[in-house]
Structure formats: structure tokens, C-alpha cells
Design brief:
Largest sheet: 2 strands, antiparallel
Number of strands: 2
Radius of gyration: 16 Å
Order of helices and strands: EHHEHHH
Length: 160
């Protein structure tokens, strides 16, 4: 089954995911007591906000392009599910519950980073040369986010 989207629609979805990701990571930074976690989450939040600005600029350029292209995956549902899950996270009040929350949040972050990278690779392949370099750079940063999140998960497990 093929799913059809315009470049502008996908860019709008990417902006929503990046905004939710930035807020999600900032919330984790505010919740974290360990300096390493706090610093990494702040950095991830800042980078995601930067991606949102880059997609916003891209969306302006693509606003007049209404041509729809077929994709093998349902980009809308992937991006929407990610956005909803990131926004749904609410930190618990107790310190004991917070540790479990951060682990679950890191699991969600891994899933979100993987999903974003997959969609951005599709965008890079479909959008053509003007955006290929920018999307490649964003994909590279998303992959470093994934490594950082996996590193935090490992550190969290070791701390137990």
C-alpha cells in the first residue's frame, strides 16, 4: 500500500515532532537530578529546537509545492504517534517513581529518534538536491541523539 504526502505536509509533521522532542527533553532535564543527564537532555532539547527552526524554513520554501508523492510507510501515523507519545509524558512526583519514569522516557526517546531518522531519510531521498545536505546533517545529529540516549540508558542500568 502506498501513502501519499506533499513535501510541505511532511515538513509540517517534522516540525511538530521536533517541537515535541525539544519539550520532552527539556522536561527530562528539569526532572533529572544527575548533572550528566541534565546536561545531555538540555543539549538534545536545544538541538531539536534547532531542527524545528530548520524545518520551518524548509516549509516556507515548500509551501507552494502541492504535488503528492507515494511512500511505502505511513509517515503521518509514525510522526503523529511519536508526537502524541512525547507530549503525553508526565513526570511522577516521587523520587522513586522518577527513576522508572526516566528509564521509560529513554525507551520512548530511542523509538522517537529511530522513527525520525527513518522518515528524514525518506524525505532526503524524495525532496531532491536543495534539501539533501540539510536533511543529511539532521539525520546525522538524530543518530548522535540515539547514541547519547542509549548511553544514558546504559548508565542508568549500571547505576542500579
Amino acid at each position: 500500500m502506498a501513502y501519499e504526502y506533499s513535501a510541505h505536509e511532511i515538513t509540517q509533521m517534522a516540525m511538530d515532532v521536533e517541537e515535541a522532542s525539544s519539550e520532552f527533553y527539556q522536561g527530562l532535564a528539569d526532572l533529572s537530578e544527575e548533572k550528566l543527564f541534565k546536561d545531555v537532555f538540555r543539549e538534545l532539547s536545544r538541538q531539536e529546537a534547532g531542527h524545528q527552526r530548520e524545518f520551518k524554513e524548509m516549509a516556507k520554501d515548500l509551501a507552494d509545492l502541492e504535488a503528492r508523492h507515494a511512500y511505502a510507510i505511513d509517515i503521518y501515523n509514525i510522526m503523529k504517534r511519536t508526537t502524541v507519545e512525547l507530549k503525553r509524558q508526565r513526570p511522577p512526583r516521587s523520587a522513586v517513581a522518577r527513576a522508572g519514569f526516566i528509564k521509560a522516557a529513554l525507551d520512548l526517546a530511542v523509538s522517537a529518534e529511530k522513527g525520525a531518522s527513518e522518515v528524514y531519510q525518506l524525505m532526503r531521498d524524495a525532496f531532491g538536491s536543495p534539501y539533501r545536505k540539510l536533511l543529511s546533517a539532521i539525520i546525522k545529529v538524530e543518530k548522535t541523539h540515539l547514541k547519547k540516549v542509549l548511553g544514558l540508558k546504559k548508565k542508568l542500568v549500571q547505576a542500579k
